[in-house]
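I hope you will forgive my troubling you with a question about protein structure. The matter concerns a single protein, recorded as an amino acid sequence and a row of backbone structure tokens. Please examine both parts with care and let me know of anything in them that strikes you as inconsistent. Thank you for your consideration; the sequence and its tokens are set out here:
***
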Amino acid sequence: MKRIFLFATILSGLFLLQNCKKDVITATTFSNKTLFAAVNDTVWTANSVNASITFNSTSKTKVFSCNGVGTDRAINLLITQNKAANTAGFPIGTFNVDSTSNVVLSYYTLQRNNSGVIALAPQGTVHPGSGAITISGIDSVKRQITGTFSFVSYKNFYDSQGNITAVNTAVITAGAFNNLPYTFVSN
């Protein structure tokens, strides 16, 4: 009798556990902005963005270029693919800043130039190993490209003897371009 009671209790417990369900919460984020980043931990969004992929038939290179301009700042992204085919697509992958000019990242801020005019100017340079662009998706029919980027831009200040007295860094993280429309040019 005890065995039947024990069996019934275990069976009832299993039945109750089977019907217990946990709440599942799923969160999805989406941005309708086509180009944004965190610049020194402050969110920056481009107000206008121009992107293109240009194939050069003479040098057999393809260049992805993206320029985003926002309030008082701009970010430029450039990747050169050597030995490329004349197509509207671009390879998916990560492209790191190195000693070549195949990957160029730049950050611009408002600065007074030699003529006294305030204009967007480069805020330093990005050293090899301190930046990357990842192309995670491309639709060559709709001509839209998606990816991420991050980099650090360094600007050195010098004394009259040419010694570095200070270094200003701009840290760009969590940069992304989502379904960014681009033009394709073949020349």
Notes: Residues 31-186 form one domain.
